[in-house]
Amino acid sequence: MSAPPQLSVIVPVRDGSATLARALTAILASELPRNDYELIVVDDASTDGSAEVAARCADTVVRLSGRRCGPAYARNRGAEQARGEVLAFVDADAMVRPDTLPRMLRMLSDHPGAHAVSASHGHAAAEHNLVSEYWNLLLHFGGQRQTGTSGDVASPCAVITRTAFLSAGMYDEWRFATAQLEGIELGKRLEDSGSDVLSSRDLEIVGMRQWNLASVCQEVWDRSVLLARSLGYRRTRAAVPSEVVFTLRPTFAPFFALLCVVVFSAAFLPYLNVPAKLGLILLGAMVINLPALLFLVRRRGIRFTIAVAPLHLLVQAISGIGVCSGWLLRAMVGDRAPDVTIQAYAEVGVEVWPPVPRAPGC
Amino acid sequence: MPSADTDDRPSGELSERRAAPRRSLIVVLPENHVVSPDRLAEGLRAHGDQQVDVVIACAGQPANLTTTQESLGEAQLLFAPAGTTTEDLRELAMRQAPGDIVTLLCGDVVSESCVDAVSS
User: Fold this and answer.
1) Nearest by CB: A55 against B3, B91, B100
2) pLDDT band at B56 (very low <50, low <70, confident <90, very high)
3) Domain annotation for chain A: domains and CATH numbers
């Protein structure tokens, strides 16, 4: 019997046939020998023929039927089928570079204390519209801030040893049924168990998802609410450096907060007219976001930055309101959990396929 | 993976689910490809004691179909026109495979002389 592959690449997909083929082709174009890895695609109840697209390249296709349970759940089902000692999770809308996976494996073997390595979004976007390019650059900016031990098992591409993944309790499919932040949460659990999560600025993927104003706003809102609601105040603060929507450097925060208060207070002075007040508010907001705006200027020039500055301010505003709403929801309603029927099935321990979501460690 | 909230279908559908996943093995045999009995046996062994639905997808007339069938027992055969690519065969077979967990096994290329030998 042939030896199991060293690496199991797991790709969760939900109605992602438009990008899945390119994502899988990029994995197959990896510098890793084909016999060294197996390719597992987990289809989360797609209705667009994603499973058939997956079958064109994959070694195993796991088809989940019925209710859609999200990428954390899908990755866990893929991991259960995996034979490799190392698991790689790659999103269906992410293209790895040929050297990404081999370098991640090398980092893992070169650092004995590390059990996971994350890649981040590159600056290039596969889709060329203003919003997609802005959001990819912001994701890239977030990724560039993380290097060394980041504590974030980044969603688009991460490798992790099977042992660490299982001992950490796998992804939290109980609370994270949507596609945000499950990697940050898993990273925190790995850190708590003494495993480092490494990241490097050079490890990049190309995001293929097409973004528009509505989808970016929705993403920012969902991430911010979920971050505050599921991680709580202390862990939200700890997770902020890993979270792309917070583009302010933590060390500058007190200074900028003071400046913000001064500027906003001035905006309410009676002797200033409305445009002047609005100008002051905008100035304060721009100053707060200076690191991100300077990054955008360096990458794409002043004209692009001016064009996306209002969008960036909108993103920051949505994020701020989202975080406050998340904390409020946590205090008033509690943490997120599946609906009562799922909770009841889980409590009884019903054995069905696809399995009922379960909390980490259960 | 594209993100969006989970849908709101009632979780009563849980009762319609199976107790265990159904497993399928797809054997892909493009033209001038064969798969050895050892690899087939290994593919079946990977599923343990569970029942496996086997689908053999061939392009044209495969060289060692009888041997393959004997190794696999009951299998669903899917014949595609000669010249059908491996990827298209895989996709066609996937549409026919009933499994929740589908393993795909592709044959190896053989030279013309080997094909003649196996056929005879």
Assistant:
1) B91
2) very high
3) 7-211 (3.90.550.10)
Q: Is the pLDDT of residue B31 over 70?
A: yes
| Token reading at B33 | 């490809």
Sign of torsion, CA A305 A307 A308 A310? Answer: positive
As given in the structure block, the two tokens for residue A226 are: 């979920």
In angstroms, what CA-CA distances link A235 with A187, A188, A250, A304? 12, 9, 14, 34
Residue of B nearest to A207 (CA): B1
pLDDT category of residue A356 using cuts at 50, 70 and 90: confident
Alpha carbon A302 to its chain's center: 28
A199: helix, coil or strand?
strand
CA atoms within 13 A on the CB side of A147: 9
A273 CA: distance to closest CA in chain B (Å)? 43
Residues 69-88, chain B: which have Cβ within 8 Å of A?
87-88
Residue range B21-119, CATH number: 3.40.50
Q: How many CB atoms lie within 10 A of CB A119?
A: 26
Instruction: Give the length of chain B.
Output: 120
Least confident of A66-70, A246-250, B53-57: A246-250
Read off the DSSP letter of residue A203.
Answer: E
Integer angstrom CA distances of residue A58 from A49, A64, A276:
14, 16, 59
Rounded Cα distance between A288 and A281, Å, is 11
In the three-class reduction of DSSP (H, G, I as helix; E, B as strand; rest coil), residue B20 is classed as coil
Chain B interface disruption, residue of A10, A14, A63, A135, most B CBs within 10 A: A63
pLDDT tens string A74-104: 999 999 999 999 999 999 999 999 999 999 9
Nearest to A161 by CA among A194, A128, A126: A194
Write down the domain spans for chain B. 21-119
pLDDT value of residue A109: 92
Tokens of A345: 């099935």
